[in-house]
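Hi R.,

Quick one: here's the Glutamine amidotransferase sequence you asked about.
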Amino acid sequence: MARPRIAILARFAENTSATRYAAVITARRLAEAVWAAGGEPLTFLPVAGSNWAERLEGIDGVLMPGGADVNPGSYGQEVSSDHVYDVDDLADEVDISLVNYALGTGMPVLTICRGTQITNVARGGTLVQHMDEPHQHYVAPVTIEKYHSEMGLSSAQVEASCYHHQVIDTLGEGLEVIARSAQGDVEAIKIDAAGWAFGVQWHPEDNFDTNKPQAELFERFVSEAASYGASR
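And here's the predicted structure, written out as tokens:
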């Protein structure tokens, strides 16, 4: 049986040791987590004005990954922190267009870190440009207050491995907060969409092989993608 095909929008890198120059990348751990869950991870180049109906032909699910900061201009603010980094307007534009398209099709969508933040922005929300206490190299238990079964989790508590200094501020339309950190920051959301759609602020790929609920999240996402593909 063919693996469900999972589109992962690439991130831009100024340079990598392997490419020497600028690169388009997908985090290895993220691709491995999708593969371990039974999916086929496919990296998509961010291209302005993409016809997603054409580009996503044969794709069964969309994963919006982590990455650099969203331009505050995309949610109506000026840059107010020196910590805002690696803003790329093309990346923001393509992220928003893909999120809006995928959520309207019924295609399963999983968003991670920046992916969750850009989804909030796409739905009219805003972000905290720099947290008072950034969650970088930060691991802590998080309890999913609602929908943990729908997310495929056998336990409502997960060990969330975080690396972010921005977080959702004003919540976007059609988003429901289903988990918060001990400090009160948004850690997971349910996304009102035509199909299965959830977002997490942490990086489940970091410890999917040691913390069962993280693997279960990818497994449910891939399972939903398989069902979506079979229904087409």
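The mean pLDDT is 96.

Cheers,
M.
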